[in-house]
Design a protein that fits this description.
The protein is built from 13 helices and two strands; from the N terminus they run αααββαααααααααα. β1 and β2 form a beta hairpin. The protein is elongated.
Length: 329
């Protein structure tokens, strides 16, 4: 379910020039860094696909943040039951076209329960985004830190970290996630999802960071810092890490849709977010037995999930193309 890109090109470091090597470019100042970021943004602004994807991501983020406000406007929370919106004589089918879509229920209601689908979708967006972004943040911190340490210091440290990475990448992650989440208590399930997803997610970024760090550690600007008496920690975080910024941003952007899909898939299988807390994957699973008679119940959460994953994927792919083009100059 979770995909991790591994074909990124190695980031090219900016080397500090010396008298012996006049052709080497000078290390970038803060203004140059801002200019590079501005160039990336200008390139993305000219890409229609990237802007559409970014616009939908911003929309979903705002919906997730403003979920309480939106549900207060609609008049229904994700836990309210409206028995007047379903027909008990038809097995709980929503009354009205498109699953009961009306001025009172903007996206209709759930068959059988009468819960408002719009309210559950906006709160489901909060769940999906919070879990995916938290897992991405934790994965990035672990992957970058361990990758830098393994790539720069090498030796036994690199051996231990590399073997752990190999083990986790070879392990059947989905089966382990299902087994662990099934055995753990239902309380704090969102936090557990973040931890479990991150445990299996960080090695993919760490492996790329490790390889690039090993390459950068042999460059002249690192040798110059080492000769000047800089500590290993300073070299790693002040000299090498800034040259990995583009790779880290692209990898993190492309990881988010994978984590959104992982959370939805685990919730679909019944080991993710626990009812009655709303989740898009959980709603899709519940709609399976109704899709033939009430397709709207499947369409609304399914379309929201599909568009969010597509938006992050397109944005990440366009960002990678822009970064590769700039580094190839």
């Amino acid at each position: 379910m979770t995909s991790f890109p591994t074909d990124l090109t190695t980031a090219k470091p900016v080397e500090a020039g010396t008298d012996d090597t006049p052709e080497a470019p000078a290390a970038p100042a803060a203004g140059a860094v801002r200019a590079g970021a501005g160039g990336t943004w200008q390139a993305l602004r000219r890409d229609v696909g990237a802007m559409l994807g970014l616009g939908y991501i911003v929309l979903v983020t705002l919906v997730a943040v403003l979920a309480p406000v939106l549900t207060s406007i609609s008049g229904w929370t994700p836990y309210d039951f409206d028995q007047s919106a379903i027909d008990p004589n038809l097995g709980g089918m929503p009354i009205g076209p498109w699953g009961g879509v009306s001025a009172e229920h903007w996206f209709g209601v759930e068959p059988g329960s009468g819960r408002d689908i719009f309210a559950r979708i906006v709160y489901g967006a909060r769940v999906s985004m919070s879990i995916a972004l938290s897992a991405t943040a934790l994965t990035t911190v672990l992957g970058v830190s361990l990758g830098l340490v393994a790539g720069y210091f090498g030796g036994r440290v690199d051996l231990v970290i590399s073997r752990v990475m190999d083990f986790l990448m070879a392990f059947p992650a989905l089966i382990f996630m299902i087994a662990v989440l099934s055995a753990l208590p239902a309380s704090n399930r969102s936090a557990l999802l973040v931890v479990v997803i991150s445990v299996f997610g960080w090695p993919y970024l760490a492996r790329i960071v490790r390889g690039q760090t090993m390459s950068l550690a042999q460059r002249e600007f690192v040798e110059a810092a080492r000769a000047a008496g800089a500590s290993g920690t300073r070299i790693v975080f002040r000299e090498i890490l800034p040259n990995l910024r583009s790779t880290i941003i692209v990898m993190a952007t492309l990881a988010v849709p994978g984590y959104i899909g992982t959370e939805a898939g685990l919730s679909f299988l019944g080991v993710g977010v626990v009812p009655p807390a709303p989740s898009w994957g959980q709603m899709i699973a519940a709609s399976v037995k109704w899709y033939a008679v009430d397709p709207a119940y499947f369409v609304f959460p399914g379309a929201c999930l599909f568009l969010l994953v597509l938006s992050f994927t397109v944005l990440g792919d366009r960002l990678r193309a822009v970064v590769d083009a700039q580094e190839g100059r």
